[in-house]
Amino acid sequence: MIVTVTANPALDVTYRIGALEPGAVIRPAEVRKRAGGKGINVARVLHALGRETLAIAPVGGTDAELFREDLAAAGIPHRLTAIDGATRRTTALVAPDDVTLVNEPGPRMSEVDWQRLTGEVGKHLEHAGVLVCSGSLPPGAPLDGYAQLIVLAKNAGVPTVLDTSGEALREGIKSGPDVVKPNADELRELTGDPHELRAGGAGAVLVSLGPRGMLAATADGTWLARPSRKLDGNTTGAGDAAVAGIAMNLHRSWPEVLRHAVALSAAAVLGPLAGDADLAHYRRELGAVTVEETHATGVNG
Amino acid sequence: MIVTVTANPALDVTYRIGALEPGAVIRPAEVRKRAGGKGINVARVLHALGRETLAIAPVGGTDAELFREDLAAAGIPHRLTAIDGATRRTTALVAPDDVTLVNEPGPRMSEVDWQRLTGEVGKHLEHAGVLVCSGSLPPGAPLDGYAQLIVLAKNAGVPTVLDTSGEALREGIKSGPDVVKPNADELRELTGDPHELRAGGAGAVLVSLGPRGMLAATADGTWLARPSRKLDGNTTGAGDAAVAGIAMNLHRSWPEVLRHAVALSAAAVLGPLAGDADLAHYRRELGAVTVEETHATGVNG
């Protein structure tokens, strides 16, 4: 079972609109609401692939009910812990030519809120094959919040994947996660060189490069995987699909991990919403991704 | 007491943002949520002016609680009737240079939902001085929904103000409301000539003309009122403030009704959110609005 933790989840609202004209009155043709956040997206992809998963997230306020109902309707196993604050919303304004995101800040987590979350994660580590920690930490959460969870997992013998950025990533690395998956911007925010993150404590650094694929800097070598072609579509959630691909293939060689991650990421670009993936494209793309060993140390070019 | 009915209310969400760039990820500096819809805005203005008011609206779903809490916190007397569907949201993206609105469609009202609303309105007509019907009719509501309420009010001897558009306005006029208040676009959608609406059943037609003021076509004559100057600000809710000004001054002469409506409308442009008004500006503007009799029959120029 792959356990995902989303410390700063959101109710994702998607408005399909004709065009985003500043100053206009827009009447969306379609309104969709669903449970969101990076770890939720990871669990959604895993569930679609028939993998056993458990999505853990702290929720509160009136939207907590919609959040829970959506996960239940999708059949995604979940444990939602209570917080005093109200779960935020993220709004995607999806026009034919662009997607504009309006992301509310997360509610402030109290110490008790945070303890409820770590307690819930602790309960499920015994049955976990991998722990995935995804997304930002909300206001009030300890800066080393993900590091705390990674230590719990290590003590239980559970491999960990960390997908966050900034201070949460910097602090998380110190606890020695097996994999961190920054994108190129998130990596550059800390250092241009993935090997520096390894030196800092990360077992392997897998850098998502958008349409250019993914780089893996590991103890066994460095590889670059490229998708067969650039796709037009919805890139929101493509990184989360890559994390799902990593988490479910951690027992394989790094070139194989990369192949699955890049193929799933490409399939997610063809999915209508974050957390959706075109599984037929995933299967086709698995044989089409190219993986080669590289001696590059940076992520540019 | 002025009773307002909002058949298609919304939870109004306001995001204060730096700029609306299509394709960007926007993190709002401020998020505000409150009970909205045109009749709610009218009641909010009346309440701020110390007038006795009662806001009636049908609400449902998880946002009904936020809607109710906000009215309670603002101290606005209200009666909310239940609907099976979920209350919609409208989102205002407020940038320094423009306000972009994203308006969800309303939930479908069942026949039972509608009967609950009319039943609630009927209960309060005995103590009502004026009935205000504001905004669109949601899907499922009868096309003559506002006409039904106006007939109830007439039977109870209560004067009525109708502020809606399209088919709801066309059907509502047939029931003989004392005042209808289209804006220039809403008037042109039916006819360019306010006197035609009077011939169709409306007692008086007050046309809001934005920064150009307001025209009153009545049995006693036709007047044009102009504000002292054009204001920069938030025009959302300015028409609702005008309706509040009309409803609370129906016992006065038409030039006086216009003076109050135009002054309150200008004061609303200076308010931060729909339903807010700068009451100091209202009082100043009351003496500065110019009203003159006119023989114009249209609203252009």
TrEMBL record, chains A, B:
SUPFAM superfamilies: Ribokinase-like. Transmembrane segments: none annotated. Keywords: ATP-binding, Kinase, Nucleotide-binding, Transferase. One of its GO terms (molecular function) is phosphofructokinase activity. GO terms for cellular component: cytosol. InterPro entries: Carboh/pur_kinase_PfkB_CS (IPR002173), PfkB_dom (IPR011611), Ribokinase-like (IPR029056), Tagatose/fructose_Pkinase (IPR017583). Belongs to the carbohydrate kinase PfkB family. This is 1-phosphofructokinase. It comes from Amycolatopsis albispora.
